[in-house]
């Protein structure tokens, strides 16, 4: 499976470089690992919480790459929300994504969502905010400040009320764009994300 590239968001100020990347067990979590690696390359200070590691060799490679870049992994997510608010400037939600129906409600995802719902620092969700239905939108999930749609916005993005919505899909093959009738936005210059 082809994983989209993840790049740092222009909306994250440089003076606030600490980011907690929370990764679920499936593809969205793997994209979170790639995102953490890119954040590290661009001089942010990511920390990863990845409690249920996938046995998939590709995902294992992503984990190893993060470890080799000295990105710290948390052994547990503090349930005391204030600790997270104080330690980090933003949270990347890569918990459930589009495959939510498989993992919804199962541990450790349910406990993570319960914590993320109370966080006060900005949350950046990758593709589909965790706890949302991909089609109908929010059903008691989290409320991210920023949404980064991968490839193209999903139906549920219509319900997104946060500050900024980006799409990261510049490298989609043309046949895929045609097949799904995606009308990708113009990406300025060499930008890999574009604000909607």
Automatic annotation (TrEMBL):
GO terms for cellular component: mitochondrion. InterPro entries: YjeF_N_dom, YjeF_N_dom_sf, YJEFN_prot_NAXE-like. Signal peptide: none annotated. Residues 1-184 form the YjeF N-terminal domain. Pfam families: YjeF_N. PROSITE patterns: YJEF_N. GO terms for molecular function: NAD(P)HX epimerase activity. It comes from the Eukaryota. PANTHER family: NAD(P)H-HYDRATE EPIMERASE, YJEF N-TERMINAL DOMAIN-CONTAINING PROTEIN 3. This is ApoA-I-binding protein 2.
């Amino acid at each position: 499976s082809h994983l989209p590239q993840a790049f740092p968001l222009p909306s994250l100020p440089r003076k606030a470089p600490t980011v907690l990347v929370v990764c679920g067990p499936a593809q969205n979590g793997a994209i979170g690992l790639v995102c953490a690696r890119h954040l590290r390359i661009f001089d942010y200070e990511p920390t990863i919480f990845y409690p249920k590691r996938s046995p998939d060799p590709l995902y294992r490679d992503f984990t190893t790459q993060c470890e080799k870049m000295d990105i710290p992994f948390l052994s547990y997510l503090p349930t005391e929300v204030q600790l997270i608010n104080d330690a980090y400037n933003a949270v990347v939600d890569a918990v459930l994504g589009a495959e939510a129906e498989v993992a919804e409600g199962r541990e450790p995802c349910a406990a993570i969502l319960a914590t993320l719902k109370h966080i006060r620092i900005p949350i950046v969700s990758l593709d589909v905010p965790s706890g949302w239905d991909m089609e109908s939108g929010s059903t008691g999930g989290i409320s991210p400040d920023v949404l980064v749609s991968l490839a193209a916005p999903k139906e549920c993005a219509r319900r997104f009320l946060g500050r900024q919505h980006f799409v990261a899909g510049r490298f989609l093959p043309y046949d895929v764009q045609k097949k799904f009738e995606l009308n990708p936005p113009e990406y300025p210059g060499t930008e890999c994300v574009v604000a909607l």
